[in-house]
Protein backbone atom coordinates (compact mmCIF):
# COMPACT_ATOMS: atom_id res chain seq x y z
CA UNK A 1 0.00 0.00 0.00
CA UNK A 2 2.74 2.39 0.90
CA UNK A 3 4.34 1.66 -2.44
CA UNK A 4 1.38 3.30 -4.02
CA UNK A 5 1.87 6.41 -1.96
CA UNK A 6 5.63 6.57 -2.24
CA UNK A 7 5.82 6.03 -5.93
CA UNK A 8 9.37 5.72 -7.26
CA UNK A 9 9.58 8.85 -9.36
CA UNK A 10 11.08 8.74 -12.77
CA UNK A 11 12.27 12.27 -13.01
CA UNK A 12 10.49 14.72 -10.80
CA UNK A 13 8.48 14.29 -7.59
CA UNK A 14 6.03 16.79 -9.04
CA UNK A 15 5.15 14.53 -11.97
CA UNK A 16 1.60 13.24 -11.93
CA UNK A 17 1.18 9.81 -10.34
CA UNK A 18 0.10 7.04 -12.70
CA UNK A 19 -3.62 6.66 -13.12
CA UNK A 20 -5.42 4.25 -10.82
CA UNK A 21 -8.90 3.01 -11.40
CA UNK A 22 -11.52 4.68 -9.23
CA UNK A 23 -9.32 7.70 -8.65
CA UNK A 24 -10.17 11.06 -10.10
CA UNK A 25 -6.89 12.89 -9.69
CA UNK A 26 -3.21 12.15 -10.15
CA UNK A 27 -2.49 13.38 -6.64
CA UNK A 28 -1.34 11.82 -3.42
CA UNK A 29 -4.04 13.23 -1.16
CA UNK A 30 -6.83 11.31 -2.85
CA UNK A 31 -4.75 8.13 -2.71
CA UNK A 32 -4.20 8.42 1.03
CA UNK A 33 -7.94 8.79 1.60
CA UNK A 34 -9.00 6.07 -0.82
CA UNK A 35 -6.44 3.72 0.72
CA UNK A 36 -8.35 4.13 3.98
CA UNK A 37 -5.66 5.96 5.92
CA UNK A 38 -6.58 8.60 8.47
CA UNK A 39 -5.42 11.76 6.67
CA UNK A 40 -4.05 14.95 8.16
CA UNK A 41 -4.30 18.27 6.33
CA UNK A 42 -3.25 21.75 7.34
CA UNK A 43 -3.27 25.31 6.08
CA UNK A 44 -0.42 27.37 4.71
CA UNK A 45 -0.59 31.13 5.04
CA UNK A 46 0.40 32.52 1.60
CA UNK A 47 3.12 35.14 2.09
CA UNK A 48 2.87 38.87 1.51
CA UNK A 49 5.78 38.55 -0.82
CA UNK A 50 6.80 37.78 -4.39
CA UNK A 51 9.38 35.27 -3.19
CA UNK A 52 8.85 31.55 -3.92
CA UNK A 53 11.39 30.64 -1.23
CA UNK A 54 9.00 31.93 1.40
CA UNK A 55 6.34 29.53 0.16
CA UNK A 56 8.77 26.60 0.31
CA UNK A 57 9.95 27.56 3.79
CA UNK A 58 6.38 27.71 5.05
CA UNK A 59 5.50 24.34 3.53
CA UNK A 60 8.62 22.68 4.88
CA UNK A 61 7.37 23.19 8.43
CA UNK A 62 4.79 20.48 7.81
CA UNK A 63 7.13 17.89 6.27
CA UNK A 64 6.34 14.36 7.29
CA UNK A 65 3.28 15.35 9.29
CA UNK A 66 0.55 16.18 6.78
CA UNK A 67 -0.92 14.67 3.63
CA UNK A 68 -2.12 17.88 2.04
CA UNK A 69 -1.75 21.61 2.51
CA UNK A 70 -4.59 24.06 1.90
CA UNK A 71 -3.48 27.26 0.24
CA UNK A 72 -5.93 29.92 1.36
CA UNK A 73 -7.42 32.31 -1.18
CA UNK A 74 -7.30 35.76 0.35
CA UNK A 75 -8.53 34.35 3.66
CA UNK A 76 -10.43 36.77 5.85
CA UNK A 77 -10.60 38.97 2.73
CA UNK A 78 -6.97 39.97 3.24
CA UNK A 79 -4.64 40.26 0.29
CA UNK A 80 -1.76 37.72 -0.03
CA UNK A 81 0.00 35.74 -2.75
CA UNK A 82 -2.63 33.98 -4.88
CA UNK A 83 -3.60 30.43 -3.99
CA UNK A 84 -3.10 29.32 -7.60
CA UNK A 85 0.53 30.45 -7.49
CA UNK A 86 1.20 28.85 -4.10
CA UNK A 87 -0.32 25.56 -5.29
CA UNK A 88 1.61 25.61 -8.56
CA UNK A 89 4.91 26.17 -6.75
CA UNK A 90 4.20 23.42 -4.24
CA UNK A 91 2.83 20.90 -6.75
CA UNK A 92 5.93 21.30 -8.84
CA UNK A 93 8.16 19.97 -6.08
CA UNK A 94 5.83 17.16 -5.16
CA UNK A 95 3.61 18.48 -2.36
CA UNK A 96 -0.16 17.93 -2.43
CA UNK A 97 -1.63 21.36 -2.04
CA UNK A 98 -5.38 21.97 -1.96
CA UNK A 99 -6.34 24.98 -4.05
CA UNK A 100 -8.89 27.04 -2.16
CA UNK A 101 -11.11 29.07 -4.47
CA UNK A 102 -13.29 31.74 -2.98
CA UNK A 103 -16.18 33.22 -4.96
CA UNK A 104 -15.61 36.66 -3.50
CA UNK A 105 -12.96 37.97 -5.87
CA UNK A 106 -13.57 36.35 -9.24
CA UNK A 107 -16.46 35.77 -11.58
CA UNK A 108 -17.13 32.52 -13.43
CA UNK A 109 -14.89 33.48 -16.34
CA UNK A 110 -11.84 34.02 -14.11
CA UNK A 111 -12.57 31.00 -11.93
CA UNK A 112 -12.88 28.56 -14.82
CA UNK A 113 -9.67 29.93 -16.28
CA UNK A 114 -7.93 29.39 -12.93
CA UNK A 115 -9.24 25.84 -12.70
CA UNK A 116 -7.72 24.95 -16.06
CA UNK A 117 -4.50 26.80 -15.32
CA UNK A 118 -4.06 25.20 -11.91
CA UNK A 119 -4.68 21.71 -13.28
CA UNK A 120 -2.20 22.38 -16.07
CA UNK A 121 0.40 23.27 -13.45
CA UNK A 122 -0.11 19.98 -11.65
CA UNK A 123 -2.62 20.93 -8.98
CA UNK A 124 -4.81 17.94 -8.08
CA UNK A 125 -7.13 19.16 -5.32
CA UNK A 126 -9.53 22.03 -5.06
CA UNK A 127 -11.72 23.36 -2.26
CA UNK A 128 -14.79 25.39 -3.21
CA UNK A 129 -15.68 28.22 -0.84
CA UNK A 130 -18.12 31.10 -0.96
CA UNK A 131 -15.67 33.26 0.99
CA UNK A 132 -15.80 35.97 3.64
CA UNK A 133 -17.19 39.34 2.70
CA UNK A 134 -14.69 42.05 1.72
CA UNK A 135 -15.66 44.03 4.80
CA UNK A 136 -13.79 41.48 6.94
CA UNK A 137 -10.38 42.26 5.45
CA UNK A 138 -7.81 44.91 4.71
CA UNK A 139 -9.39 46.09 1.44
CA UNK A 140 -12.89 46.83 2.64
CA UNK A 141 -13.32 49.26 -0.26
CA UNK A 142 -13.04 46.44 -2.84
CA UNK A 143 -15.94 45.29 -4.98
CA UNK A 144 -17.28 41.93 -3.78
CA UNK A 145 -18.00 39.66 -6.76
CA UNK A 146 -19.94 36.59 -5.55
CA UNK A 147 -20.95 35.69 -9.09
CA UNK A 148 -21.09 32.03 -7.96
CA UNK A 149 -21.52 30.47 -4.52
CA UNK A 150 -19.70 27.40 -3.20
CA UNK A 151 -22.31 24.97 -4.49
CA UNK A 152 -22.44 26.59 -7.94
CA UNK A 153 -18.65 26.43 -7.93
CA UNK A 154 -18.75 22.70 -7.16
CA UNK A 155 -21.20 22.24 -10.01
CA UNK A 156 -18.79 24.15 -12.25
CA UNK A 157 -15.78 22.02 -11.29
CA UNK A 158 -17.76 18.84 -11.76
CA UNK A 159 -19.07 19.93 -15.15
CA UNK A 160 -15.60 20.87 -16.38
CA UNK A 161 -14.07 17.67 -15.10
CA UNK A 162 -16.74 15.10 -15.93
CA UNK A 163 -18.34 16.62 -19.01
CA UNK A 164 -15.23 18.28 -20.37
CA UNK A 165 -16.91 21.60 -21.02
CA UNK A 166 -17.22 25.14 -19.69
CA UNK A 167 -20.50 26.22 -18.12
CA UNK A 168 -21.24 27.96 -21.41
CA UNK A 169 -21.15 24.56 -23.09
CA UNK A 170 -17.91 25.19 -24.96
CA UNK A 171 -15.82 22.02 -25.21
CA UNK A 172 -12.50 21.50 -23.35
CA UNK A 173 -9.70 19.68 -25.13
CA UNK A 174 -8.40 18.22 -21.87
CA UNK A 175 -10.56 18.20 -18.73
CA UNK A 176 -9.05 19.18 -15.35
CA UNK A 177 -8.69 16.03 -13.22
CA UNK A 178 -9.40 17.62 -9.86
CA UNK A 179 -10.36 16.01 -6.57
CA UNK A 180 -13.02 18.43 -5.37
CA UNK A 181 -13.99 19.43 -1.86
CA UNK A 182 -15.86 22.03 0.11
CA UNK A 183 -16.25 23.23 3.67
CA UNK A 184 -18.93 23.00 6.30
CA UNK A 185 -19.59 24.76 9.58
CA UNK A 186 -21.56 22.51 11.94
CA UNK A 187 -21.91 25.15 14.66
CA UNK A 188 -23.80 28.10 13.25
CA UNK A 189 -27.55 28.48 12.83
CA UNK A 190 -29.56 26.76 11.57
CA UNK A 191 -27.62 23.96 13.28
CA UNK A 192 -30.32 21.33 12.57
CA UNK A 193 -30.07 21.81 8.82
CA UNK A 194 -26.27 21.86 8.62
CA UNK A 195 -26.22 18.17 7.82
CA UNK A 196 -28.64 18.85 4.97
CA UNK A 197 -26.31 21.56 3.71
CA UNK A 198 -23.52 18.97 3.88
CA UNK A 199 -25.65 16.63 1.79
CA UNK A 200 -26.30 19.38 -0.73
CA UNK A 201 -22.58 19.98 -1.11
CA UNK A 202 -21.92 16.28 -1.59
CA UNK A 203 -24.75 16.08 -4.12
CA UNK A 204 -23.21 19.03 -5.95
CA UNK A 205 -19.92 17.16 -6.27
CA UNK A 206 -17.90 17.51 -3.06
CA UNK A 207 -15.72 14.42 -2.66
CA UNK A 208 -14.12 15.62 0.53
CA UNK A 209 -15.22 18.04 3.22
CA UNK A 210 -13.07 20.09 5.59
CA UNK A 211 -14.87 21.82 8.42
CA UNK A 212 -14.52 25.06 10.32
CA UNK A 213 -12.85 24.94 13.75
CA UNK A 214 -14.50 22.27 15.90
CA UNK A 215 -14.14 22.99 19.60
CA UNK A 216 -17.59 21.76 20.54
CA UNK A 217 -17.30 17.98 20.23
CA UNK A 218 -20.89 17.04 21.22
CA UNK A 219 -22.30 19.18 18.40
CA UNK A 220 -19.81 17.75 15.90
CA UNK A 221 -20.55 14.19 17.00
CA UNK A 222 -24.24 14.80 16.65
CA UNK A 223 -23.84 16.07 13.10
CA UNK A 224 -21.51 13.19 12.21
CA UNK A 225 -23.98 10.68 13.54
CA UNK A 226 -26.68 12.10 11.32
CA UNK A 227 -24.24 12.21 8.40
CA UNK A 228 -23.43 8.52 8.90
CA UNK A 229 -27.12 7.65 9.18
CA UNK A 230 -27.77 9.45 5.90
CA UNK A 231 -24.93 7.55 4.23
CA UNK A 232 -22.95 10.74 3.62
CA UNK A 233 -19.73 9.43 5.16
CA UNK A 234 -19.56 6.81 2.41
CA UNK A 235 -20.04 9.36 -0.31
CA UNK A 236 -17.40 11.86 0.80
CA UNK A 237 -14.33 11.95 3.00
CA UNK A 238 -15.07 14.15 5.98
CA UNK A 239 -12.20 15.91 7.78
CA UNK A 240 -13.30 17.98 10.78
CA UNK A 241 -11.16 21.02 11.49
CA UNK A 242 -9.32 21.59 14.75
CA UNK A 243 -7.16 24.46 15.85
CA UNK A 244 -4.78 25.87 18.41
CA UNK A 245 -5.61 28.89 20.51
CA UNK A 246 -2.68 31.00 21.69
CA UNK A 247 -4.48 32.30 24.78
CA UNK A 248 -7.89 32.86 26.33
CA UNK A 249 -7.71 36.42 25.04
CA UNK A 250 -7.14 35.27 21.44
CA UNK A 251 -9.95 32.76 21.79
CA UNK A 252 -12.31 35.46 22.98
CA UNK A 253 -11.27 37.76 20.18
CA UNK A 254 -11.70 35.01 17.60
CA UNK A 255 -15.18 34.09 18.66
CA UNK A 256 -16.39 37.68 18.77
CA UNK A 257 -14.67 38.96 15.64
CA UNK A 258 -14.29 36.11 13.19
CA UNK A 259 -17.50 35.04 11.51
CA UNK A 260 -18.47 31.44 12.13
CA UNK A 261 -16.00 30.64 14.91
CA UNK A 262 -17.71 28.95 17.81
CA UNK A 263 -15.68 28.31 20.98
CA UNK A 264 -17.51 27.00 24.07
CA UNK A 265 -16.96 28.79 27.40
CA UNK A 266 -15.41 25.65 28.87
CA UNK A 267 -12.45 25.92 26.49
CA UNK A 268 -11.91 29.58 27.38
CA UNK A 269 -12.07 28.74 31.09
CA UNK A 270 -9.56 25.95 30.65
CA UNK A 271 -7.16 28.33 28.90
CA UNK A 272 -7.64 31.00 31.55
CA UNK A 273 -6.87 28.52 34.29
CA UNK A 274 -3.67 27.31 32.68
CA UNK A 275 -0.25 28.55 33.70
CA UNK A 276 1.10 28.42 30.15
CA UNK A 277 -1.86 29.27 27.98
CA UNK A 278 -0.13 28.67 24.66
CA UNK A 279 0.99 25.18 25.67
CA UNK A 280 -2.50 24.47 26.99
CA UNK A 281 -3.96 25.59 23.65
CA UNK A 282 -1.76 23.08 21.88
CA UNK A 283 -2.68 20.38 24.34
CA UNK A 284 -6.34 21.04 23.66
CA UNK A 285 -5.65 20.78 19.93
CA UNK A 286 -3.90 17.43 20.37
CA UNK A 287 -6.80 16.10 22.43
CA UNK A 288 -9.30 17.31 19.85
CA UNK A 289 -7.40 15.49 17.10
CA UNK A 290 -7.51 12.29 19.10
CA UNK A 291 -11.19 12.73 19.83
CA UNK A 292 -11.99 13.45 16.18
CA UNK A 293 -10.22 10.25 15.12
CA UNK A 294 -12.58 8.18 17.24
CA UNK A 295 -15.73 9.57 15.64
CA UNK A 296 -17.48 7.22 13.25
CA UNK A 297 -17.49 8.36 9.64
CA UNK A 298 -14.48 10.65 9.93
CA UNK A 299 -11.66 10.21 7.37
CA UNK A 300 -9.09 12.59 8.75
CA UNK A 301 -8.49 15.87 10.49
CA UNK A 302 -7.74 19.38 9.24
CA UNK A 303 -5.38 21.27 11.54
CA UNK A 304 -5.51 25.05 11.45
CA UNK A 305 -2.67 26.69 13.33
CA UNK A 306 -2.55 30.26 12.11
CA UNK A 307 0.69 31.88 13.35
CA UNK A 308 1.57 28.62 15.12
CA UNK A 309 2.44 26.65 12.00
CA UNK A 310 5.78 25.59 13.43
CA UNK A 311 3.98 23.48 16.06
CA UNK A 312 1.77 21.50 13.68
CA UNK A 313 4.22 18.65 13.07
CA UNK A 314 4.86 18.31 16.79
CA UNK A 315 1.17 18.25 17.64
CA UNK A 316 0.36 15.69 14.96
CA UNK A 317 3.15 13.47 16.27
CA UNK A 318 2.06 13.91 19.85
CA UNK A 319 -1.52 12.99 19.00
CA UNK A 320 -0.53 9.71 17.39
CA UNK A 321 -3.37 9.94 14.87
CA UNK A 322 -1.10 8.86 12.03
CA UNK A 323 -0.27 5.63 13.88
CA UNK A 324 3.32 5.78 12.75
CA UNK A 325 2.56 6.46 9.09
CA UNK A 326 4.86 9.14 7.67
CA UNK A 327 3.26 11.25 4.94
CA UNK A 328 5.33 11.98 1.84
CA UNK A 329 7.75 14.90 1.96
CA UNK A 330 10.48 16.05 -0.40
CA UNK A 331 13.88 14.50 0.26
CA UNK A 332 16.34 17.14 1.26
CA UNK B 1 -39.56 46.13 2.98
CA UNK B 2 -37.71 44.22 5.67
CA UNK B 3 -40.74 43.69 7.93
CA UNK B 4 -42.93 42.54 5.04
CA UNK B 5 -40.21 40.13 3.95
CA UNK B 6 -39.95 38.67 7.45
CA UNK B 7 -43.76 38.40 7.58
CA UNK B 8 -43.75 36.38 4.37
CA UNK B 9 -41.25 33.94 5.87
CA UNK B 10 -43.29 33.49 9.01
CA UNK B 11 -46.42 32.87 6.97
CA UNK B 12 -44.68 30.93 4.23
CA UNK B 13 -47.33 28.23 4.11
CA UNK B 14 -50.19 30.66 3.54
CA UNK B 15 -48.16 32.54 0.94
CA UNK B 16 -47.39 29.29 -0.80
CA UNK B 17 -51.06 28.30 -0.91
CA UNK B 18 -52.03 31.76 -2.14
CA UNK B 19 -49.36 31.83 -4.80
CA UNK B 20 -50.20 28.32 -6.02
CA UNK B 21 -53.72 29.61 -6.46
CA UNK B 22 -52.92 32.88 -8.24
CA UNK B 23 -49.97 31.78 -10.36
CA UNK B 24 -52.07 30.36 -13.21
CA UNK B 25 -54.18 33.52 -13.18
CA UNK B 26 -51.15 35.81 -13.24
CA UNK B 27 -49.51 33.87 -16.02
CA UNK B 28 -52.75 33.73 -18.01
CA UNK B 29 -53.27 37.49 -17.69
CA UNK B 30 -49.72 38.60 -18.47
CA UNK B 31 -49.48 36.05 -21.26
CA UNK B 32 -52.69 37.38 -22.82
CA UNK B 33 -51.71 41.03 -22.42
CA UNK B 34 -48.25 40.42 -23.80
CA UNK B 35 -49.65 38.71 -26.87
CA UNK B 36 -52.41 41.24 -27.48
CA UNK B 37 -50.05 44.20 -27.18
CA UNK B 38 -47.37 42.53 -29.27
CA UNK B 39 -44.91 42.79 -26.37
CA UNK B 40 -45.51 46.49 -25.84
CA UNK B 41 -46.99 45.89 -22.38
CA UNK B 42 -44.05 43.75 -21.23
CA UNK B 43 -42.23 46.71 -19.74
CA UNK B 44 -45.11 48.08 -17.66
CA UNK B 45 -45.95 44.55 -16.54
CA UNK B 46 -42.36 44.03 -15.44
CA UNK B 47 -42.68 47.27 -13.51
CA UNK B 48 -45.80 45.98 -11.75
CA UNK B 49 -44.03 42.71 -10.94
CA UNK B 50 -41.07 44.62 -9.50
CA UNK B 51 -43.34 46.79 -7.36
CA UNK B 52 -45.54 44.00 -5.97
CA UNK B 53 -42.76 41.49 -5.35
CA UNK B 54 -40.55 44.31 -4.11
CA UNK B 55 -43.10 45.35 -1.51
CA UNK B 56 -43.85 41.79 -0.42
CA UNK B 57 -40.44 40.12 -0.56
CA UNK B 58 -37.79 42.81 -1.12
CA UNK B 59 -37.52 41.23 -4.57
CA UNK B 60 -34.36 42.29 -6.41
CA UNK B 61 -35.66 41.28 -9.88
CA UNK B 62 -32.92 38.74 -10.53
CA UNK B 63 -35.19 37.36 -13.25
CA UNK B 64 -34.94 33.73 -12.01
CA UNK B 65 -37.44 33.58 -9.19
CA UNK B 66 -36.87 30.80 -6.64
CA UNK B 67 -39.10 32.07 -3.81
CA UNK B 68 -41.11 28.86 -3.64
CA UNK B 69 -37.87 26.86 -3.18
CA UNK B 70 -36.45 29.16 -0.53
CA UNK B 71 -39.14 29.38 2.11
CA UNK B 72 -40.66 32.50 0.48
CA UNK B 73 -37.46 34.38 1.37
CA UNK B 74 -35.71 36.18 -1.49
CA UNK B 75 -32.08 34.95 -1.48
CA UNK B 76 -30.93 37.97 -3.45
CA UNK B 77 -31.10 39.92 -0.19
CA UNK B 78 -28.14 37.88 1.07
CA UNK B 79 -25.13 40.23 0.74
CA UNK B 80 -23.25 37.38 -0.95
CA UNK B 81 -26.28 36.59 -3.16
CA UNK B 82 -25.87 32.94 -2.24
CA UNK B 83 -28.41 30.69 -3.98
CA UNK B 84 -27.66 27.64 -1.82
CA UNK B 85 -27.17 29.04 1.63
CA UNK B 86 -26.50 29.71 4.37
CA UNK B 87 -22.79 30.42 4.43
CA UNK B 88 -20.61 29.40 7.34
CA UNK B 89 -20.50 32.87 8.82
CA UNK B 90 -23.97 33.17 10.32
CA UNK B 91 -23.84 34.74 13.78
CA UNK B 92 -24.84 32.75 16.86
CA UNK B 93 -28.04 34.81 17.11
CA UNK B 94 -28.97 33.87 13.55
CA UNK B 95 -28.08 37.23 12.06
CA UNK B 96 -25.99 37.87 8.97
CA UNK B 97 -22.20 37.89 9.08
CA UNK B 98 -22.02 40.92 6.79
CA UNK B 99 -24.99 42.90 8.09
CA UNK B 100 -25.18 42.20 11.83
CA UNK B 101 -28.54 43.96 12.22
CA UNK B 102 -30.24 41.77 9.58
CA UNK B 103 -31.51 38.24 10.08
CA UNK B 104 -29.57 35.83 7.87
CA UNK B 105 -31.72 35.43 4.78
CA UNK B 106 -30.97 31.72 4.68
CA UNK B 107 -31.78 31.07 8.34
CA UNK B 108 -35.18 32.50 7.46
CA UNK B 109 -35.32 30.51 4.24
CA UNK B 110 -34.85 27.15 6.01
CA UNK B 111 -37.33 28.20 8.65
CA UNK B 112 -39.89 29.23 6.03
CA UNK B 113 -39.33 26.06 4.02
CA UNK B 114 -39.97 23.91 7.09
CA UNK B 115 -43.57 25.13 7.11
CA UNK B 116 -44.25 24.75 3.42
CA UNK B 117 -45.96 21.89 1.67
CA UNK B 118 -43.24 21.82 -0.97
CA UNK B 119 -40.57 22.90 1.48
CA UNK B 120 -38.29 20.08 0.34
CA UNK B 121 -37.50 22.07 -2.76
CA UNK B 122 -34.90 23.89 -0.67
CA UNK B 123 -32.72 20.77 -1.04
CA UNK B 124 -32.50 21.25 -4.78
CA UNK B 125 -29.23 22.67 -6.08
CA UNK B 126 -29.68 26.09 -7.66
CA UNK B 127 -27.01 27.25 -10.04
CA UNK B 128 -25.94 30.89 -9.76
CA UNK B 129 -28.22 33.37 -11.50
CA UNK B 130 -27.86 34.45 -15.09
CA UNK B 131 -26.77 38.04 -14.60
CA UNK B 132 -28.12 38.97 -18.02
CA UNK B 133 -31.61 38.39 -16.59
CA UNK B 134 -31.23 41.05 -13.92
CA UNK B 135 -34.15 43.49 -14.02
CA UNK B 136 -36.28 41.32 -16.30
CA UNK B 137 -39.58 39.66 -15.53
CA UNK B 138 -39.42 36.21 -13.96
CA UNK B 139 -43.11 35.66 -14.76
CA UNK B 140 -42.71 36.30 -18.46
CA UNK B 141 -39.70 34.00 -18.45
CA UNK B 142 -41.61 31.27 -16.64
CA UNK B 143 -44.38 31.58 -19.19
CA UNK B 144 -41.95 31.37 -22.05
CA UNK B 145 -40.22 28.33 -20.56
CA UNK B 146 -43.52 26.55 -20.06
CA UNK B 147 -44.62 27.31 -23.60
CA UNK B 148 -41.32 26.00 -24.93
CA UNK B 149 -41.65 22.85 -22.84
CA UNK B 150 -45.21 22.33 -24.12
CA UNK B 151 -44.07 22.81 -27.71
CA UNK B 152 -41.26 20.30 -27.19
CA UNK B 153 -43.72 17.80 -25.82
CA UNK B 154 -46.22 18.20 -28.64
CA UNK B 155 -43.42 17.70 -31.15
CA UNK B 156 -42.47 14.38 -29.62
S1 LIG C 1 -24.97 35.11 6.98
FE1 LIG C 1 -26.72 34.52 5.71
S2 LIG C 1 -27.41 36.42 4.70
FE2 LIG C 1 -25.36 36.80 5.56
S3 LIG C 1 -23.96 36.37 3.90
FE3 LIG C 1 -24.13 34.44 5.04
S4 LIG C 1 -25.82 33.34 4.04
FE4 LIG C 1 -25.93 35.47 3.30
Give me a quick take on this structure:
The complex is a heterodimer of chains A (332) and B (156). Chain A is built from 13 helices and eight strands.
Commentary on this structure:
Chain A has 332 residues and is of the alpha/beta class. Chain A has one domain: Alpha-Beta Barrel (TIM Barrel), CATH 3.20.20. Chain A is built from 13 helices and eight strands. Chain A is globular and about 60 Å long. Chain B has one domain. The relative contact order of chain B is 0.17. At the A-B interface, helix 6 and helix 7 of A face helix 4 of B. The structure holds iron/sulfur cluster. Iron/sulfur cluster (SF4) binds at residues 78-80, 82, 85-87, 89-90, 96-98, 104-106 of chain B.
Layout of helices and strands, plus pairs?
The complex is a heterodimer of chains A (332) and B (156).
Chain A: H1 2-5, H2 28-34, E1 39-44, H3 52-60, E2 68-71, H4 83-92, E3 97-102, H5 108-120, E4 125-129, H6 150-163, E5 179-184, H7 194-204, E6 208-213, H8 217-229, H9 232-235, E7 237-243, H10 248-257, H11 265-273, H12 277-294, E8 300-304, H13 312-319
Parallel strand pairs in A: 1-2, 1-8, 2-3, 3-4, 4-5, 5-6, 6-7, 7-8
Helix pairs in contact in A: 7-8, 10-11, 11-12, 12-13
Chain B: H1 2-10, H2 12-36, H3 42-57, H4 105-114, H5 138-155
The structure holds iron/sulfur cluster.
Residues 78-80, 82, 85-87, 89-90, 96-98, 104-106 of chain B line the site of iron/sulfur cluster.
List descriptors:
heterodimer, A: about 325 residues, alpha/beta, TIM Barrel, about 40% helix, globular, B: about 160 residues, mainly alpha, 5 helices, binds iron/sulfur cluster
Structural class of chain B: mainly alpha
Separation of the first and last Cα atoms of chain B: 46 Å
> Could you estimate the helical fraction of the residues of chain A in percent?
25-40%
Oligomeric form: heterodimer
Mean pLDDT of chain A: 95
**What are the low-pLDDT stretches of chain B, counting only 5+ consecutive residues below 50?**
none
Number of domains of chain B: 1
| Elements of chain B, N to C (H/E) | HHHHH
- At CATH level 3, the topology of chain A is TIM Barrel
CATH-derived architecture of chain A: Alpha-Beta Barrel
Amino acid sequence: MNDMLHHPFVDNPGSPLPEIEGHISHGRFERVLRAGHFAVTTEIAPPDSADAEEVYARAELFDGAVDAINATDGSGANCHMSSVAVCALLSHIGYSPILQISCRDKNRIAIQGDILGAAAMGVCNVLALTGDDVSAGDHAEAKPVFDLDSISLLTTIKTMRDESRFMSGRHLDVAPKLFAGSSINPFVPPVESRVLQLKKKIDAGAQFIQSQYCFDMPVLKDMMKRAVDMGLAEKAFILPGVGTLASAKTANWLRTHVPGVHIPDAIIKRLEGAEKQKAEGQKICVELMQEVKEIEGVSGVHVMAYRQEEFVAEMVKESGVLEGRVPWAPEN
Amino acid sequence: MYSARRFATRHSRAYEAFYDFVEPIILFVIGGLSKLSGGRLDKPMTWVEAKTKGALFDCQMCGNCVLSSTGMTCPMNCPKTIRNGPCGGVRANGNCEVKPEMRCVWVDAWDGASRMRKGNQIHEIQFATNKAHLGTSAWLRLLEERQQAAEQESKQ
